[in-house]
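INTERNAL AUDIT FORM
Audit reference: QA-55
Scope: verify that the stored structure record matches its stored sequence.
Auditor: D.O.
Record contents follow.
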Amino acid sequence: MEAKTVLKLGELTTNQRGGKFFPVCAEAWRSREWLRILWHASSHGSEAEARRLPLCLEQNEAAKADLEAIEKDIKGQLTQRCLRDSKIFGRYLAASDVEGRFVSCLKTSSRGNSFIKLKVDLSRVHFWDADQQPLEDPGDLANRECKVRADLRQVWLMSGQCGLLLEVTDLQLREAEAPALRCPFFLEHAQQPAAGGPAAPHIEVLEGEVRALGVAQEDPPFERQALTRGVSDGVAHAAGCVSGGRRG
């Protein structure tokens, strides 16, 4: 969803339980890139009986920019209502008051990690696979990558706070790419001396650097080389420095 998409708040409404909200008329928000689902949507605490469950996604710059623009538009329209109508929050509110009461869907964890918090009803959401085919049994959502379509349902008001309800209607899923791994025994093979040749120096990789150990003290010091071209390049460079020092 682009920042210029038309978004309009409806009239203040009260539901059957007495909760107040503003209906939202706007296009659905769609993530432009794949986002990682941090954990499977589940209920806990006060949400134990809730139909809509929290769906938390890893944040990226594109999604952040989209949602910040949406929320900015909503807060601007809400401020205009609160400047004219004291019944919304019990008194007239300025822009700074609305800002202080608004609960954003862009969150920061206690560890400083940024994420997006949406709502999802697992019994109603449509699941799709990476080939855009219906997915009957999505399984555990934790650490899966997804593209999201979410409706802007309403701006809720509760206990002096307000916020946008973004409810997921469609999830396209794919497996997260596994991190690249390197065999820890790779260097053992690289350090084997050639038949009849001198023993190769012992090479050790620590914190992304290559070090040569066991070199005589009178030899020139080994210059550490940052491991920028892969372990094999670092090993070759280290061995070349050591042999060159001995020739001097």
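Auditor finding: record pair retrieved intact. The chain has two domains: 8-174, 186-247.
Action required: none
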